[in-house]
Amino acid sequence: MRKKILVLLLLNTPIYMVIAQKVGVNTTNPRTQLEVNAPDSAALLLANQQISAPNVKTAMYFTSGNRYLGGISASNTTSIDAKLSFYTFSTPAASSLKERMTITDGGNVGINTTEPNATLDVDGTVRFRNAPSANAVLTSDSTGMASWRKPATLNTAFNALLGGDVNLFNTATVLLPFRSNAGGLAYDDGGNFNNSTNGFVVPEDGVYHFDLSVRLFVSNPAGTFNVNLSCKNFTTSGTLQTIERTLQGGNSVVETLTASFTAKLLRNHVIKVEFFQNSGDPFAKVSSCVDCTRFMGYRLY
Predict the structure, then answer these.
(1) Pair 178, 286 in one domain
(2) pTM, 2 dp
(3) Alpha helices, DSSP H only, in 181-249?
(4) Which band of pLDDT confidence, cut at 50, 70 and 90, is reported for residue 10?
(5) Are residues 193 and 79 in the same domain?
(6) Upper half-sphere CA count for residue 203 (Cβ side, 13 Å)
């Protein structure tokens, strides 16, 4: 009797040691309860010897306590075709798990549909989180990258004014702080003028027309001086239109510079207006008169 008891103890001891330790296959230092290491991609093979079809399933399930949380299965759909399925749904029975995503032999992916008929077949709503916007449409660029965009309309137009006179500084270039919310005759159809950065943001590729007018006051110029009014593309660092004048000094000067032009622009280009003068007058300024200083534009096509 003592010999039999000793044999049973010897047989049982290794079993409990294996259960208490981490198990490694092809590795001497397993990092988890079970680690399988192989020199190729077939590190773990789940096999099902039942060859009849359809719906023969080889599956792996995930549980917590006495509930099934999810699973992955490969199953026959015909004698030569198969699909890979992913399941979720907390349930006491594996048979109650819900098939959430399916990948077919042909590469079609189904979300909430078990028989996808397109590369991506979704039964339900889809949400894109890149810059969401109400009433936007989904479009793609030349590389096929999709994003939400507000549909452009031909009546995209703005009239930006100055909120007050702009003091100028000798031999300095000043960004004119035009705003489409300056009141009075200012407007912004389409909401494409950025009043924080004082520039028009091109909504879509196209041809745009601009009208520009700036009135300069110089009370005491030191002599002959130069002025430069420029409408610039701040995205490409290019100049769309420039008006240059050489004005005579000695007396106070009131000069209005105007420009009217069209330009082919790309989406998200930013258009702003700069002014330069070197009169030497510390009190030189650009008037905010709504009839003489404005920055207007609209889309032609």
Answers:
(1) yes
(2) 0.55
(3) none
(4) very low
(5) no
(6) 23
pLDDT at 152 over 70: no
Q: Which pLDDT belongs to residue 49?
A: 75
Same domain, 77 and 198: no
Distance CA 177, CA 187 (A): 15
SS3 of 86, please? Answer: strand
Which of the four pLDDT bands, split at 50, 70 and 90, describes residue 235?
very high
- Which amino acid belongs to residue 111? I
Is residue 200 located within the same domain as residue 112?
no
Average pLDDT in the 123-142 region?
Answer: 79
Q: Are residues 196 and 85 in the same domain?
A: no
Which residues are 101's β-sheet partners?
A: 86, 111
Q: Over the stretch 175-197, which tens digit does the pLDDT of each residue have?
A: 999 999 998 899 999 999 999 99
In 78-177, DSSP assigns E strands to 82-91, 98-104, 109-111, 120-122, 137-140, 146-149, 157-160, 166-167, 172-175
* Torsion sign (Cα): 38, 40, 44, 45: negative
251 has a pLDDT exceeding 90: no
Residues 57, 73: Cα–Cα separation, whole Å: 6
Check: CB of residue 178 under 8 Å from CB of residue 152. Answer: no
Does residue 41 belong to any structural domain of this protein? no
Domain limits at 217?
157-299
What percentage of the chain carries pLDDT values higher than 90?
A: 55
Binning the chain into helix, strand and coil, the percentages to the nearest 5 are: 5, 45, 50
CB 173 within 8 A of CB 166: no
Confidence class for position 106, pLDDT limits 50, 70, 90: very high
CA distance 180 to 89: 53
- Based on the structure, what is the number of domains in the chain? 2
Within a domain: 29: no
Q: Has residue 215 been placed in a domain?
A: yes
